[in-house]
Amino acid sequence: MAYDVAAVRAHFPALREGAAHFDGPGGAQVPDVVGDAVRETLTSAIANRGSVTAAERRAEEIVATARRTMSEFLNAGSIVFGRSMTQLTYDFARTLSKNWRPGDEIIVTRIDHDANIRPWVQAAEAARATVRWAPFDRTTGELPVESVTKLLSDRTRVVAITAASNLLGTRPDVAEIARAAHEMAAFVYVDGVHYTPHVPVDVEAMDADFFVCSPYKFLGPHLGVLAAAPELLETLRPDKLLPSTNAVPERFELGTLPYELLAGTTAAVEFMRGLDGLEEHELRLRHQLESGLQELGVRIYSKASSRTPTVLFSVDGLDPAEVYRRLGAEGVNAPAGHFYAIECSRWLGLGDKGAVRAGIGPYTDESDVDRLLKAVARLR
Fold it and tell me: Which SUPFAM superfamilies does this UniProt record tie to the protein (predicted)?
């Protein structure tokens, strides 16, 4: 059955404003069912979690349902909720680094978002550990397995790797990198923020020790999610309040959880599960976009053989911010910048200005792509 993009779009009130949204990699638009779930939770009788009153039980059920839903969605073990992927990564970097010693090594990559670089770099500095950098191919945008694995040693403690570059869309072979890292007894911490909206996630098959993502990138509310095996989480001792529970995964969640956002996350996952044919739809539109940009002579940086429906490009003679502004004036939302993948942007030679990024999502249709191409053509 063909992907019914018109039926999908009908669930997104934000589209009524008329813009063509290619800004999903920075935060997707939200379907009505997610907004309904958030509103209903906020306006229902609710209290701190417990088992005595109906309000307590409602909170308990919302949390349990969100954990179960995310665990099934990611094919993962325990689920830890946080304010954002960045906050969770800082928390876990601080926790893991308690066991690091001078001379230990941490591997990060040039293609990652800074949220999967800077927490590890700063934790390594505090522990006097060594940071080793894995480069990617500037021409193809590929991150070869050996670029990471050649840096491994018996002193490697963590390999921080993206499942999909938020700037280029590149999808490294995480499973193969994880296999090599585990042979050295290193943990593998995977940034799945840009991967999760586009690809069915299987954390177990990926062999990630930690996998983090953000519901607001896959049609949900602003929140962070970390998945890890409960047995692994049991070995970690985060800083926490004295009266708070020491149970896993709650010991990693600092303070009361945002119940309304958890309800919205559950609704977002359920909506995503109903999008049969999404990958094929997004791939087809990506090909349409790329071929159109190539015909216009636009410089494209996203060239990896395996990547998300994300295209990073620039227009010769025009500052990326100017392209962004002029596209926006025509109702085409395709932002410009480094999008916090600052090491990636610099490695590409784009500096801190970056380039223009167009991301295709569940609600993108052919007319959106056509609008973007026509708007770019008018820039020439």
Answer: PLP-dependent transferases
Structure pTM?
Answer: 0.97
> Which residues span the domain enclosing 107?
36-272
The CATH number that applies at residue 170 is 3.40.640.10
Angle (CA) 342-346-350 rounded to 5° is 110
8 A C-beta contact, residue 181 and residue 156: yes
* Residue whose entry in the numeric block shows the structure tokens 């009908």: 10
Do 79 and 180 lie in one domain? The reply is yes
Q: Structural domain tally of the chain?
A: 2
**Domain shared by 285 and 155, yes or no:** no
What digits encode the pLDDT tens for the residues 74-132? 999 999 999 999 999 999 999 999 999 999 999 999 999 999 999 999 999 999 999 99
Kindly list the distances between the CA atom of residue 6 and the CA atoms of 57, 363, 365, in Å, as whole numbers in the listed order.
38, 8, 8
In sign, the C-alpha dihedral spanning 334, 366, 304, 157 is: positive
